[in-house]
Structures are given as structure tokens and as C-alpha cells.
Amino acid sequence: MINLRNIRVPTKETRVELAAPLDAKPNASRASGPMDPVLACLVIALIGFGIVMVYSASAVEATVRHHDPQFFLKKQVGYGVAGLVVAFLTSRIDYHRLYKLTYPVLLGVGVLLLLCVVGLGHSGGGATRWLSVGPVHVQPAEMAKLALVTWLAYSLAKKADKVSSFTIGFLPHLLVAGVFMLLCMKQPDFGSAVVLLLLTFTMLFVAGAKVSYILGASIVGGALGAASIRYKAYRWDRYVAWLHMDEHKGDLAYQPFQSVMSFGSGGPTGLGLGRGLQTLYLPEAHTDFVAAIVGEELGFLGVSLLCAVYMVLVARGVRAALRAPDDYGSYLAFGIATMFGVQALVNLAVALAVLPTKGLTLPFVSFGGSSLLVNAAAAGLLLNISRQGPPSYVVTERPAPPPRPSSADLGAGVLS
Fold first, then answer.
1. What is the pTM assigned to this prediction?
2. DSSP code, position 250
3. Tens digits of per-residue pLDDT, 157-185?
4. Is the Cβ–Cβ distance between 262 and 293 less than 8 Å?
5. Comparing C-alpha atoms, which of 33, 3, 4 is closest to residue 384?
6. Which residues contact 210 (CB under 8 A, 6 or more apart)?
7. 204 or 403: which carries more pLDDT confidence?
8. Which segments within 275-363 are labelled E, that is strand?
9. If residue 319 lies in a helix (H) or strand (E), which one and from where to where?
10. What's the CA dihedral at 387, 156, 146, 38 to 10 degrees?
């Protein structure tokens, strides 16, 4: 008989195992997890708020130009419903499927930008930024922002270990962004070109590109931007008018001057929805300068609350980036959050006359189908990334393997 007194009884040990390999794509169960409820509510609230403000800012102009005070309201409602559908659909599709669409989308948007430049675009306000498809006007510059973000996220994640290299990790991304910026400048759309540059530098910085490369390119880009303003007569005239707004409030600085008047007349709490008077004087108040009507009708409190909403929107995007299961999702979420934040910041700065007029919309709030649908698609991607979350871990308990008996234990055994 074997003596068991000196043989230890096996004990249980706790082991932590990955539910899936680190390099595996999220499966269907993780892709169908709960989305970020705060982010979803913010997007819905901004779209709804935009519909209300577009109606309030455009009723007078719609009556004069189209003999229907609800002309722009009806269109914005349609854009809003379509935007919600787009956001819902993109939130249900795994963002990893964008892998195969990255280059076709980038090339397609580049072709659309080129069509605007070669003379096939629709002109308005001194710029050729739209393509007419029947009654629908498409603005490729809005698509270019999201297309560039998706490509940068794909490329930076693919070159993760070579991002610090100038020839592989920095220069190719800057060249592609430069082509898109050049096409925007030819329309001309200086504001969109600036946003594309800021998006590129921000994502390169987050991915780990050398700060010296970014600073050097920023200096060159700033010099080229200053030259494009100084040696283009209409840009220089607008810049001078912005510097001396009181002297040009009746001509080139009329729109920013009236915008500042809107903010000033609103006071702390505003005049009330639909009671603003600057809609009679501020041209295109429902598009790029809708924030001025918010300031007049809802006051400083309303503008502050709107800024807070955008700050939370960006913060939830960064949260989704930090919780993403891979580098691609992280860069994509961070790029989209940056896109929302930069556009909102520049639009509000222009409306407050802190910056010269740039022609950028206020995300989800300004009138326009291209801007709203692209932003809705971007928001849907953010929601999809938030649904997948970080890699999951499973804690399991399994018995440890029994220790092998020693020679002493085997020798002590006696068979009867």
C-alpha cells in the first residue's frame, strides 16, 4: 500500500485568460455591446437643437426668398432624420470593415474635390464648393475631413512601429493631407484646409510622430498660409477689414460685425427663441453664423451650455479612443473627436469675430445636408467603437496539476 501522508493534496489556483487573442478582431457579441448612452444623447440633442435654431434663424429669409417661412425647416428636418438613420446604421456596423474601404473612399473624395476645381462645381458666395446632383448639392470638403481621418487611422495603425520615421511615418501622411488641402484651397475653402492640417498634425502627435517634425511642418505651413493670405487680394482685404471692423462694418466686415451685435444684444439669458432681431440683418444666419442667433436668443447662458455640450462630446470621443480594442479604433475615435472639437471651436471663434470668416459649419447645428450627414456618420463610428470597448478578460479557476511523488514517497510504500 502506498503511504499517502507525505503526498500533498492538489489545490486550486486562479488563472486570468484572454477571451480572445490580442490580435483578433472583436467578435459579434462584443460588436453588439451597449453603446455610450451619453454620446448618443448628445448627438440626438444637438441635431434636435439645430433644427430649432435653423428655423428660428431662417424664417425671415425663407419668407422673403421662398415665400415659405418653413422652407429651410423642412429641409433641415429631412437632413436630421437622415442623419439619425446614418448614425444608427454606422453604429451597428463593425468599424473594422472600413479597412477595405479606406483607399476607395479616399480616392473617391479626392476625385470629387478635383471635379469642383476643374469647373464642374456649383458656385456660391464666391467659391465653388458644391457638386450638383439634381436638386441635391454635395460638398466634398465635408467628406474630405472624415475620409482623411479614416485613412490616417488606418495608416498610422499599420505603421505603428515606424511612425517616428520621417520617410515612412511622417512624410507620406503629410503629402496626402497636402493634396487634399491644395484641392480645398483651389475652390477656395481656406477654412477646410486649416482643419485638415490640424487633424493631420493632431493624429500624428497622438500616434507618436517626432515633435520636431510636427513643429517644423507647422512653421512651414504657417508661412505658406500667411503668404496665401497676403498675396491673394480678396483674402488680404477681408483680413484688413477684420482688423478694422468698425471702419468696414458696412462692406467687407458687415457679416462679422452683425454677428458680434447678435451676441451683445442677447445679454445673460437672451431675448427668447424666435425673438431675435438680427435675423433681419445677418446674412445666411442659419448656416455658418447660427451661433450668433443662439447668442442673441439664448444669451450667454445658452452659448455656454452649447460649448459645454461640445466639450463633453469631445471628451466622450476621447474616452472611446482610450477604451478602443486596437490602435486603429483608438486613432479613428481620437480623429473624429478632434474633428468635432476643431470645427466647433473655429466656428464659434469666427462668429465671435475672434478669427476672420472661414466658412465652417457648426457641427450638427448649422443648416446643410453634407455637413450633417458626414458628422452623423462620424458620430455613428464613435458609437460603434464605444460598443466594442477594451479587450475582455475571463477569470477562471482550475485545479493545479498534482505534484509528482518523490522517490522517498514511492520507496516508503508497502504492498500488502
1. 0.85
2. T
3. 999 889 999 999 999 999 999 999 999 99
4. yes
5. 33
6. 164, 166, 170
7. 204
8. none
9. helix 290-323
10. 30
Choose among 390, 388, 289, 384: nearest CA to 336. 384
Instruction: Write down how long the chain is.
Output: 416
CA–CA distance from 237 to each of 188, 241, 242, 408 (Å)? 15, 6, 9, 98
pLDDT single digits (tens) 94-148: 999 988 899 999 999 999 999 988 877 766 666 677 787 766 788 899 999 999 9
How far apart CA 297 and CA 262 sit, in angstroms, is 9
Tell me how far apart the alpha carbons of residues 270 and 277 are, in angstroms, rounded to a whole number: 12
Average pLDDT over residues 45-53: 96
Q: Residue 107 — left, alpha, or beta (φ > 0 → left; ψ -120 to 50 → alpha)?
A: alpha
- Alpha carbon 353 to its chain centroid, in Å, reads 23
Closest of 143, 145, 119 to residue 132, by C-alpha: 119
DSSP 192-206: HHHHHHHHHHHHHHH
Cα(325)–Cα(392) distance, integer angstroms: 9
Cell of 168: 515612412
